[in-house]
Amino acid sequence: MIKFLAPSSALLVIALLTLTACGEQKSNSNADSSAQTQKTYNWKLVTSWPKNFPGLGMAPEKFAQYVNSMSNGRLTVKVYGAGELVPGFEVFDAVSQGTVEMGHSGAYYWKGKIPAAPIFSAIPFGMTATEFNAWLHYGGGMELWQALYQPFGIKPLPGGNSGPQFGGWFKKEINSVADLQGLKMRIPGLAGEVLKNAGAIPVTLTGGEIFSALQSGAIDATEWVGPYNDLAFGFYQAAEFYYSSVWHEPGTGLEFLINQQAFDDLPADLQAIVEVAAQAVNESTLAEFNARNNAALKTLITEHKVKVRQFPAQVLQELKRQTDALIADQVKADQDFARVWQSYSEFLASMRDYNQLTLQAYYQHR
Amino acid sequence: MIKFLAPSSALLVIALLTLTACGEQKSNSNADSSAQTQKTYNWKLVTSWPKNFPGLGMAPEKFAQYVNSMSNGRLTVKVYGAGELVPGFEVFDAVSQGTVEMGHSGAYYWKGKIPAAPIFSAIPFGMTATEFNAWLHYGGGMELWQALYQPFGIKPLPGGNSGPQFGGWFKKEINSVADLQGLKMRIPGLAGEVLKNAGAIPVTLTGGEIFSALQSGAIDATEWVGPYNDLAFGFYQAAEFYYSSVWHEPGTGLEFLINQQAFDDLPADLQAIVEVAAQAVNESTLAEFNARNNAALKTLITEHKVKVRQFPAQVLQELKRQTDALIADQVKADQDFARVWQSYSEFLASMRDYNQLTLQAYYQHR
């Protein structure tokens, strides 16, 4: 605890930190002209989620509300669910082409276009939410992300974090690596490739298809998000075992995508409002997921008698081994991935040591 | 990972969450009148830290920068270090009396006036930063905090978090509870009382006095903040052992104090700007502490050969036992403390289980 009765003689004056400061956005020479400050801007924001989807879909709604309030209606943001204006997987293109001014999504969806993009959402055995925010703001992450999207005319901003996602729902217990062989699991992205290399059969299904596939036995297992969203989908009715093990998405970052030209056209005060509103949403979304996941897990256990399990160490070690191999391939295959991964992995290694000494030890002894 | 190709048939529409929404602040019936939106407001913000102090002191600077930019100068916030306008420990009174419009401080400083206040900054063996944010925004914490400060005409807002604070600097190793007996340690607040009940002698010193007291042997040990601030104070030159054990301040919340009348006098858009700016600062301050603490710890270990230690389990158990006893006394002594503690402790117990299954397990196996 700090206790100053008077300014300390050891006072240190450090230079104003400028990394993520909003006040710097003064690129518009005519930003403060009277004509521009009176002008009204009406933006469309498309998302990869159903309208008002719990957690993920509420982040852009809250952003819109903040911007509308702070700008006193000079900048209005209207949020569209996936498929209302453009399909969920075309959010990036719509923002890039200027069809809409903004999007809310997850960077791993753009892997086909930008192989390094998944690093800005979730990497198996990667950073937690607070580690990720530290890297983005104070470890060089934002600069790398901006450089990656710049050729597409898109300015990215962090747009919330789901916190740790759960290992998923399984119809049978997983007691060894042998139990993964031939296991049909709905799990997309890098984690799906990892599981495939470990002997399982990853299946790609959209949100609406998963429950019936799990219930019919067409798949043996599925991951989704965490207790809050999983409870709403009713997976406990179709699978007995809920694996709380965190491995494939330890702290999934969401993103705001902004058309750079649309952003540049705003006066400086509205630019600041967009940036600060996004940062506030980044904070509250993680808080919401933590609170609601926690409450939902209690409901799943006490009301729905779900059996919570952890993967055995052997299984996690195999998944980690396959993850390392897969990332080594990505580093060889793509220069951008290699460059971003170097920054990410160095920061992660360092934070891993730090959190081992602090939070990990604290969770154990408190 | 969520993957929607089209709005899911399992789409869930939930009511707009209104817990911390800014748009609701429409209490001024004349908020949007032309006269009021053109008016300029010049606010003073006093703090309990030296001007521009690393981490803690940068949070209000960033807040001021955000507000100034977003309001295009209609609301300017000028930040004063401790002692420049009012002493660091008179921040609360200055805001309450309307001498200044805002303050930035830590709630545990007001324990003499409001016994329950420390719950909104740090409680030994209490919540981590992300747990605390979840409780404030989605667990009823903010409402309790507002009710506690309301009689003083103050509106509180979260104002950043230091993350886990370190156990402190010791001239000798602590291998057992016996080593605490008669130990003179600079440690204020509830933690000081806990340590006293465990046999040590807590000493109160201001920031500028600690280093020389530690070097001369007038004290045997001191806690301060974490590696980032501790490195700057040079404590490694006066004590050999740095205990990374987190116990007394697992995630210290900072606060913005706002004079309620001054807030009510603002038009609705400037009210929203104040609230959202504070929330954004709450996010970035934790990120800054995590990144800089981590880097500073590396410097302490590699350049200054500091010996990092953890308290043995026996010592932590004794500190926990004394903490529980002290809190039981507070619950008996003060109705407000009892009411807030019930909410806090229930949420903590629940999050403890949740994070044990998720983050704690993840830190161990990743």
In short:
2 copies of one chain form a homodimer. Chain A has helices at 34-38, 58-70, 91-97, 129-138, 141-149, 189-197, 207-216, 227-233, 260-264, 268-302, 313-333, 335-365, and strands at 41-47, 75-80, 102-105, 154-161, 168-170, 184-186, 201-203, 221-222, 241-243, 253-259, 307-309. With 366 residues, chain A is of the alpha/beta class.
Give the quaternary arrangement of the chains. Answer: homodimer
Q: Tell me the fraction of residues in β-strands of chain A, as a range.
A: 5-15%
C-alpha termini separation of chain A: 19 Å
The number of helical elements of chain A comes to 12
Major sheet description of chain A = 6 strands, mixed
Unreliable residue stretches of chain A? 5-32
Number of strands of chain A: 11
Mind telling me which CATH architecture of the largest domain in chain A this is? 3-Layer(aba) Sandwich
- For this structure, the CATH topology of the largest domain in chain A is D-Maltodextrin-Binding Protein, domain 2
Class derived from helix and strand content of chain A? alpha/beta
Average predicted confidence as pLDDT of chain A: 91
Helix content of chain A: 40-55%
